[in-house]
Design goal:
Elements (H helix, E strand, L loop, with lengths): L20 E4 L7 H13 L4 E5 L2 H4 L8 E2 L4 E2 L1 H13 L3 E6 L8 H5 L1 H9 L12 H14 L6 E4 L16 H18 L4 E3 L3
Parallel strand pairs: 1-2, 2-5, 5-6, 6-7
Antiparallel strand pairs: 3-4
Length: 201
């Protein structure tokens, strides 16, 4: 900082960790061999961290409290259990990103005129956003953090809150976002007091 005298300043928590990590989307990869190749490449390049989306819309897709994939007749947790296990195996620390609500959690948002207009103008645009009830998000955060307690130490709440398409194409709402963070943080800490909650990108 250009200052060589004075009292020793307090260290920033967790600032002395290896800095290199990768962002992956193993949730989109059905083949374990490809998942292993991705993680092996990350490990071999010297990465310590893997940031991975755990999309709410895939884990609790059809209704609150239902963690079942009827297409494959299996628990929706299975794929994510494998991701966590493989990251452990390759010595990579997971940062789990928690967002992307399912349609059942944002019925009001899906019916909103702004979102309907955005979909007509650009039907391929990726539009997501906070759920109608933030407590539903809190329950999802609690479910993920409690399931992987002892295996996942870091969670990121939400993704890019400065983008309109992350707000159901409604106006960006900093106050509601702070409330989303409060609910998510509180429930994460209830599930695992040692979990480290990260602010989104």
């Amino acid at each position: 900082r250009g200052v060589t005298w004075g009292a020793e300043l307090p260290r920033i928590t967790l600032a002395d960790v290896p800095p290199l990590g990768v962002n992956v989307f193993l949730d989109r990869e059905p083949d374990e061999a490809n998942m292993r190749q991705t993680l092996a490449l990350a490990h071999d390049m010297g990465a310590r961290w893997v940031k991975q989306l755990f999309p709410w819309e895939q884990i609790e897709p059809t209704a609150k409290g239902e963690f079942w994939d009827a297409r494959y007749n299996q628990s929706t947790w299975e794929h994510y259990d494998r991701i966590v296990s493989l990251c452990d195996e390759y010595g990579l620390e997971l940062i789990v990103r928690l967002d992307r609500p399912p349609d059942w959690a944002r019925q009001r948002a899906l019916a909103a005129p702004a979102l309907q207009s955005a979909r007509r103008e650009d039907p391929d645009r990726d539009i997501t956003g906070p759920p109608d009830n933030l407590d539903d998000y809190g329950d999802y955060v609690y479910a993920v953090v409690s399931r992987y307690r002892g295996h996942v130490r870091y969670v990121q709440l939400w993704n890019e809150p400065n983008l309109a398409n992350e707000w159901n194409w409604a106006p960006i709402d900093p106050q509601r976002f702070v409330e989303l963070l409060r609910v998510g943080y509180t429930r994460a800490k209830e599930a695992d007091p040692s979990v480290v909650v990260l602010f989104p990108s």
